[in-house]
Amino acid sequence: MDYPKKVKIREVCTRDGFQMEREFIDTDKKIEIIDLLSECGFADIQYTAFVHPRAVPNLKDAEVVSQRIKRVPGVTYSALVANEKGFERAVAAGVKTVEFVLSATDSHNINNVNATTKESLQRVEECLKKDSDCLIMPGAAVAFGCPFEGVVPFERVKWIFQHYVDWGLTEVSIADTTGMANPIQVYDTIARLLDLFPDLELALHVHNTRGMALANIFAGIQAGAKVIDSAAGGLGGCPYAPGATGNIATEDVIHMLDLMGVETGVNLDKVITAANKVREVVGHSDSYILKAGKAFDLVKEKPKKQT
Amino acid sequence: MDYPKKVKIREVCTRDGFQMEREFIDTDKKIEIIDLLSECGFADIQYTAFVHPRAVPNLKDAEVVSQRIKRVPGVTYSALVANEKGFERAVAAGVKTVEFVLSATDSHNINNVNATTKESLQRVEECLKKDSDCLIMPGAAVAFGCPFEGVVPFERVKWIFQHYVDWGLTEVSIADTTGMANPIQVYDTIARLLDLFPDLELALHVHNTRGMALANIFAGIQAGAKVIDSAAGGLGGCPYAPGATGNIATEDVIHMLDLMGVETGVNLDKVITAANKVREVVGHSDSYILKAGKAFDLVKEKPKKQT
User: Percent of chain A, pLDDT > 70?
Assistant: First the structure.
């Protein structure tokens, strides 16, 4: 069985998790949580989004948060944008890496950012032309299944990534935004993409809506995904499955990868501390490790290697 | 990627799930649920246990249940036993297949059935010598991790299965009883066992205590596991992690395997009906599909094949 000895983790709790929270989360609390996350060893913390405050009221303080968080050297502090306006705000706020959100299907993209996929690709291209030192990491949301259109044909996903490759971009992401992907599909899709575009550093973003997130991550890293997205406390969700689980919890991902011997650079106990803080602030969480504890918590002699 | 086109499912809700329920479940309700499960297409329904009623009060009606359930041709109706007394009760009740429970570690086995692993192996051997037409399927519980002893060395697991092979048994099971296994460990352990004992038809029993159950199943079938245990409604649990998730929900397993194109013979919609009945009867469940619905429920055009 082929799997990597090392993957990067991108923490998205305060962006993808907080954007779904109905009650406004106090800016100081956000900063406190991001600062806790900064101590964990993540490669990347996607800490906010520069989007319209009417669309995502909870992230209307993106500028203030950007100013006040402590930045730990070696950590990328990225933000999400959906159009040129957001990109300009992010650049003005000093953001050096943005994820540009774009859905694989027109239906979802129109619903999400009021543009067709092609129009969003043009938005990315316009931003790439701007004179900035900000890295643009675009991706493909609902790349495995769309709540409106169903299964997304591989050719559609390929068409999107072909644009990124043509523009010289290598750091890109692929998302199972609504938790519809299965491990074989994740494996096949990523393997085929990397076969076509071997230079891509592909980030895999999975939701645990139907319990398959860790299986999909396991399949994804077998196929060559290099970055895994997750959210401390398992926050987030999907408007199409109210009450369902959202992002896979970072502590559940790190717990599994630690046991598997896959290096992430992330300290699980520090993530658990941050996730507990997240739960305290928002009043809920969806995390196996917060509920059950780590596998070997009860055992005196901790495992070094499993097999 | 190697994975089978077909696996068998053993449904264990009314045994492994119900044994953990504090309130006695009415015998008629048990029978109603087992009869619903009989319509789903399972290879095997482990419907009860013949164990001491003080140890597992909820299954004290094993004999009555055995008499009154409807038996669908082609379905194996198995029961769990822990010693010769239980085996004799099962045989007297007409059971034709028993799982003989036995833990990989002495600590867990003493705690569970008041015997060392070696003593339990002797119990199995005694039962095999009896003149009965009942198939004995033994296994190894806590084979990946033990809440008392930690990681279980592969040599210990091999030593147990060597006994089964020496006795000519091929249908055996391996269990992550307390949800401590990770996918690489599951893959390696099963691959090594099947390398040593290629004739085994290995059933994999996983709990979702730390969210890894579907990943472990995905790893297990890649390594050659032929049978998957699961419990409708995700019932069950573990005394060492109170409040944590127990058995992986059958509907979550079938949903994933259906999407992956792995044939089980099980009808997902009928399982969902049975799981809803389970939830109605016991008042709770732990199931992604009952919460979120199937991946393509919202989509008009259902997928035939994902990729």
Answer: 97
SS3 A227: strand
Check if A146 is active-site: no
Looking at domain A8-292, its CATH architecture is Alpha-Beta Barrel (3.20)
Contacts of A252 in chain B (CB under 8 A): 210-211
Flag whether residue B197 sits within 8 Å of chain A, measured between CB atoms: no
Q: Please name the residues between 237 and 266 in chain B that touch chain A, using a CB distance below 8 Å.
A: 240-241, 243-245, 248-249, 252, 255-256, 259-261
- What does pTM read for this prediction? 0.96
Span of A87-91, A236-240, B99-103, B166-170 with lowest mean pLDDT: A236-240
Residue A115: closest CA among A141, A95, A96, A91: A141
Residue B53, classed as helix, strand or coil, is coil
Q: What is the pLDDT of residues B197-226, one digit of tens each?
A: 999 999 999 999 999 999 999 999 999 999
The structural domains of chain A, with segments of one domain joined by +, span 8-292
Q: Provide the ipTM.
A: 0.96
Q: Give, rounded to a whole angstrom, the gap between the first and last alpha carbons of chain A.
A: 14
CA angle B49, B65, B113 (to 5 degrees): 15
Q: At what angle do helices A213-223 and B183-196 cross, to 10 degrees?
A: 70
Q: Does A197 touch chain B if contact means CB atoms closer than 8 Å?
A: no
